[in-house]
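Why predict the complex rather than its parts? Because the way molecules touch one another can change local conformation, and only a joint prediction can capture that. The input here totals 542 residues.
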Amino acid sequence: MQTGKNSLHHTAFHWLPWIIPSLLIIGWFVLSETGRVPTYLMPHPFQVGKAGYSYVLGNPGESPYSGRFLADAGASLVRVAGGFAVAVLLGIPLGILSGRIATVRKLMGSTINGLRAVPGISWLPLAMVWFGIGLKTTIFLVALAAFFPIYLNAATGARQANPLLLQAGAMMGVNRLRGTFAILLPGAMPNIMTGLRLGLGISWAYLVLGELTGVPNGLGALIMDARMLGRIDMIVVGVIVIATIGRLADQLLKTSMKFCFKSARRMA
Amino acid sequence: MFQERQEDGLKPKLKAISGYKSDDPLQEPVLTISGLRKVFAGKGTFHTVLNDVTLRVKDGELACIIGRSGCGKSTLLKILAGFLPPSSGKVLLNGKPISAPGPDRCMVFQEDTLFPWLTVSENIGFGLKRTVKAKREREAEVDRFISLVGLDEFKNYLPHEISGGMKQRVALARVLILKPQVLLMDEPFASLDAQTREEMQNLLLSLWKKMSYTIVFVTHDVDEAVILADRILLMGKDPGIIRDSISVNLPRPRQRDTGDFIFFSRKLHERLRK
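Output of the joint prediction:
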């Protein structure tokens, strides 16, 4: 079936996502080489590359940041995973309930939309008082931030569920509980997926916020620490690492949802 | 050939007497509807959609309900399905009141109501999961019904990959597999092209002959009603009532180009306009 033109097109398509990152790096390289941007604002790519190499693959103790990658990434992943899990466990059931039941929607709508308007950073001082510095505060912030998109999208998905599909299920003898799992949730899957992806994305933003407060490890802590020591190259390394892990996490989320659920696999 | 009778059991008023089958008094009707009213309440207003609808449908009968749009024929079907409660009156299946949807009265909708995340065979097996636990047994049954509606080659396709006519075949198979006593059909072929519609009508008739269930078929297409029905129930509008009950005694299989068919269909058109 596949013609030459098709496969060529396919290959080009495959490389599409790499074009913008490549252009950014080339532009950065050119700006640094020509000296238009001073190194104290943006270090040379080679310097960042070296710092990154040492951060990821170097032996601990060689220099302040060498070999810290695994510990930092591990700590951050645990915080994101914990906060995201709490957000999913609360957001999806509450979202589905308020999407289907007008009373629940009325009961929770104002409160949730009010809380949603509060910027995450305003919770930081309170969270520090409540949970101290470190794991718990970060998980709280991540969970809080990721909850809203997950909840809102699940609610929208449930509210927009095609009533005819639910009627069809009812006439085939499906009770309410099975209907929820066999019809409502798969039907709301596109919205649920959107919510999960938005939630996971925002989790990384709030992770850095949570780690800015003096925790010893984590990717956010790395950036904060590097800022105080004036290591701009390490800040850039931190940014690139978070972007990479964030992208991989999104991909992992999509892949595992598709692996687990037919409705995610067959989403249009 | 063209008969009518009052539904309230008065003496049949016959216009022509060729092959009239009288009601067998010993045969209990499957569906009994008497004095059915349905009123929808709006903002301070009430709209009577169905007013004193009375009808009986016998076991194995193919009854077509025909009427202009807005006469309440879909509402009547939804009440039979148990999706809507009646405002007053009796709606009985085998003498028991209908209160909720259930697999003994299955509906084929006009709209596409297949589960888009399930394949053709998974859609057809959906309702069977509850009753048939053994997977192999279920699959055998699903395969049988896929063959019955002629979709063997498409069993692993998703709904968005097949045509509208095929979707309605799946919709038919997924309810027939549950062996419903009454099949409710709400203009199921209205959105198909003329040729596909005819194919589907023939398919429905052949399955009906094979499996002998009771069908209540709502349509606004006169020819469709004449092709399919044992009996045509003509509904009037504002408020919805059953105006006429007309037995169709044309021999089967029916042809659209015979004089009898055309005569019947013209008569019905006239009656509908009144």
